[in-house]
């Protein structure tokens, strides 16, 4: 071996070691990042009150809060608790008066559903185990269709509900 060969060999070995260290660091970062997302996606960590590790807990919460009824929460505000389940929204028909500010509490008891009220910006994913909240003020009377915009199986296209905005009675 010439002195040149030895110097080359030593330098190649240093590079190889540096590479091995890089790979170990990258694998460690990947492992940590994966664990972080797995824990969050599977709800093992509860970060806010709206998240539950048990999907049925969210269902019970909505059920306990009068699913199917429009609850008056103020002079001009209403709350509706609504559950998506393949393939219907419960309640399926919601009556609110014109000009009412309505807060929707939305969850799902099986798979992901898309809670969309046509003709409004209301668009929220109904997630099992999570109660999502969205507010909207209905300024005109008429029938607004609630559709599911997240494919959820065979009868997804027929998962249609209604928000019926009634004219205010003369005072
Ligand atoms: Cu759907």
Automatic annotation (TrEMBL):
Principal location class: other
A GO term from the CC aspect: membrane
GO MF term set: copper ion binding; cytochrome-c oxidase activity
Mitochondrion is among the record's keywords: no
Membrane spanning stretches: 18-39
Compartments, as annotated in UniProt: Cell envelope
InterPro entries, alphabetized: CcO_II-like_C (IPR002429), Copper_CuA (IPR001505), Cupredoxin (IPR008972), NosZ/Cyto_c_oxidase_sub2 (IPR051403)
Domain Cytochrome oxidase subunit II copper A binding: 75-171
Gene3D superfamilies found in the cross-reference section: Cupredoxins - blue copper proteins
Taxonomic superkingdom: Bacteria
A Pfam family the protein falls into: COX2
Listed name of the protein: Cytochrome c oxidase subunit 2
Higher taxonomy: Bacteria, Pseudomonadati, Pseudomonadota, Alphaproteobacteria, Acetobacterales
